[in-house]
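User: Predict the full complex structure for these chains.
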Amino acid sequence: DAGVIQSPRHEVTEMGQEVTLRCKPISGHDYLFWYRQTMMRGLELLIYFNNNVPIDDSGMPEDRFSAKMPNASFSTLKIQPSEPRDSAVYFCASTTSHNEQFFGPGTRLTVL
Amino acid sequence: KQEVTQIPAALSVPEGENLVLNCSFTDSAIYNLQWFRQDPGKGLTSLLLIQSSQREQTSGRLNASLDKSSGRSTLYIAASQPGDSATYLCAVSDSSYKLIFGSGTRLLVRP
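Assistant: Here is the predicted structure of the two-chain assembly.
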């Protein structure tokens, strides 16, 4: 298995632009998580899905953030409009039930 | 609210030394505890998963223990090598499947 796949690996954009991050979970995993890592706040859960349905989005910082999972093999995290304080590394992870969470390589987002 | 603390924040040891990383959590109602390794600029690599019913897990030179009642876990690394240099993160999950992370221990193993 290729593991969790994320794209792009790096994204540099200007304030106000829309940003879309993509994730392909490990095949057969029915839980998908989006995390954000910053120096100040460490790793934080933004939202997670079970069987493509959002279960808990309480970590989403504000309405500028949205996430979708149209099918079992694809999820997106969108920021519109982006702001400099959104600069961080965004990780996607997947798992089955209460098992190990496997993380993707992350997307390093820089908003100028 | 669950809080996870890792001590020390940074550790520097000579090659070959055995070492212990500590993780503590405030709410003992966890489903499992997971240890990760993160290399600079990279993603997280899962090292060990301990279910709440287990006391320890071993993988190669790594051994992780869990004491739910006291809210503690330790990661023991035997015969450390320079390639072990990385940040080690501890995370706990409750019934909601969410992982709550500690801030990590940055380990440097000197040749």
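The two ends of chain B are 41 Å apart (CA to CA).
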